[in-house]
Specification:
41% of the residues lie in helices and 22% in strands. By secondary structure, the chain is an alpha/beta fold. Bound molecules: adenosine-5'-triphosphate and magnesium ion.
């Protein structure tokens, strides 16, 4: 192989003998080491070039041994010049076939210094973001209490607790309620985001009726839709769909999705809300025929602070919080634009795993009653458990949480009374609603049950009436 002249190499280059003693070097090396002459560098130990304080004294020995095991070694280290100054070097030591070692050094001090500065700037930026987030969440925290009491006062005024309101005032109060609710949602979103970042967000789960919940959100936002003369419809649901979820958080999911649809749909537009079930998943869906989302923005709309263009003001947090909450519940968020099958608008679907509806415990030995009540309960999404010979109700309910007891009123009077006393006397079961389906009952007996918070309804009941009662 032809030897390349060392001066033809752009980096500082050395050739050493097998013991790392420098036998030759190029002009760049003389410059880099600020050496008075080539001779001043000859005889130096190249294994001693690394001059880092954190390298042990054994490092030169280690380097020598390492280079017998592998063909080359790359280091980034401090190197001392002959005048005592140092620089950061990217050093490559390469053992040649004849045992000599070829060493190149490149001064990377500027690059390392820039990286260091960049890291410092990043850290300052992170600290600024932390401060800003802290400030925003502190302010949000301060705002939450007064906003909550304003919302409470406005609700009371709407309910007529301060007497009848003139129509104009009613209109103002309605608008204020929507604005306060929107502010409260933003404040809660900010506080939730903070908890999500800290990993301290906890879900208070219960069995939540999703259709009912979304219906309430639709009601609360209907004034806003009316103001824009939009048609806002909630698809009728034959049966309730339940999810094991944090009610308040899912309410915010519905609120954020629906308020987007209202906000990003022009006057006179149409918004359709539905809650359906598919393969064990509840689908909370809002379709609108509004301005839509451009395809390139679709993957980003649920990122924090992302907004499409500057068409409408907003913080850009709504959908990101929706995604976080839904994901925490084991669900997903899908955003499509235009709405499939149309050429405009946006479809937002949040999916949540469903759970069995609240448990109705039927105590009866009557096959007809059991069949009718079971059918009606299941038709509205409730789950059912039948206890034909209840002797010890609390024991029979170990491990389950009944949402209601449905007692057969034709059971012997003393037995029925005993069942009610057992339920009301058990600390866990005592608050559970009890409904007696009775073919006929003395008014005094009925009043007695009333005092024990037991509802009595006539039996038999038309299926429709039964479903309505069970749905409540
Ligand atoms: P806020 O935090 O007050 O909800 P925002 O509505 O701007 O502010 P997001 O709800 O996260 O924030 O929505 C992000 C962006 O996605 C919006 O700025 C809007 O550009 C777009 N977007 C969301 N929903 C719709 C929709 N139904 N139709 C059209 N664009 C939408
Ligand atoms: Mg929004």
């Amino acid at each position: 192989m032809t030897e390349i002249p060392l001066d033809a190499i752009g980096e500082a280059a050395f050739v050493t003998d097998a013991d790392f003693r420098v036998v030759d070097c190029n002009a760049r090396a003389i410059d880099l080491f600020r050496a008075p002459s080539r001779e001043a560098l000859l005889g130096l130990d190249a294994a001693d070039f690394p001059n880092d304080h954190d390298l042990s004294a054994e490092f030169p020995t280690y380097l020598r041994e390492r280079l017998t095991a592998v063909p080359f070694v790359v280091l980034e280290n401090h190197v001392k010049r002959l005048d005592g100054s140092t620089f950061v070097s990217e050093t490559i030591l390469h053992r040649l076939a004849d045992g000599r070692v070829f060493v190149t050094l490149r001064d990377v001090s500027v690059r390392v210094e820039s990286l260091h500065r960049l890291e410092e700037a990043n850290e300052r930026l992170r600290a600024a973001v932390r401060d800003r987030t802290e400030f925003v969440s502190n302010v949000s925290h301060e705002l939450r209490t007064p906003l909550t009491s304003m919302s409470y006062a406005l609700t009371n005024m709407t309910r007529g607790l301060c007497g009848p309101l003139p129509d104009k005032a009613k209109d103002y109060v309605g608008r204020l309620q929507v604005d306060v609710k929107r502010l409260l949602t933003t404040v809660n979103d900010i506080l939730d985001l903070r908890q999500m970042e800290n990993g301290t967000l906890t879900l208070r789960k219960s069995c939540v009726p999703l259709t009912k919940l979304f219906g309430e959100v639709v009601d609360s936002l209907s004034i806003q839709a009316q103001t824009k003369r939009q048609t806002l419809t909630l698809a009728p649901a034959p049966k309730e769909i339940y999810a094991e979820a944090d009610r308040h958080k899912i309410e915010r999911v519905c609120f954020n999705i629906l308020s987007n649809a209202i906000k990003y749909t022009p006057e006179g537009g149409a918004i359709a809300v539905s809650v359906t079930e598919q393969d064990g998943q509840a689908l909370l869906r809002v379709d609108d025929n509004g301005i839509g989302i451009p395809p390139e923005a679709l993957p980003r709309v649920s990122q924090r602070y992302f907004r499409v263009g500057d068409q409408v003001t907003g913080t850009g947090l709504g959908l990101s919080i929706v995604r976080e909450i839904v994901t925490l519940h084991g669900g997903n968020l899908h955003i499509e634009s235009p709405v499939p099958g149309t050429d405009c608008g946006t479809r937002v679907t949040a999916t949540l795993p469903t759970c069995p509806g609240p448990l109705q415990v039927i105590v009866s030995g009557d096959d007809d009653l059991i069949a009718e009540v079971t059918q009606a309960a299941e038709a509205v999404g409730l789950s059912v458990r039948v206890d034909r010979e209840a002797i010890d109700v609390p024991k029979g309910c170990e491990g389950v949480t009944p949402a209601r007891f449905l007692l057969d009123g034709s059971l012997p009077e003393s037995y029925l009374g005993d069942l009610v006393c057992q339920i009301r006397g058990d600390a866990r079961l005592a608050p559970t609603p009890i409904l007696i389906l009775s073919p006929g009952m003395e008014p005094s007996r009925r009043a007695e049950y009333g005092r024990m918070r037991v509802e009595v309804r006539p039996w038999p009941l038309a299926p429709d009436a039964l479903r309505t009662i069970l749905r409540d």
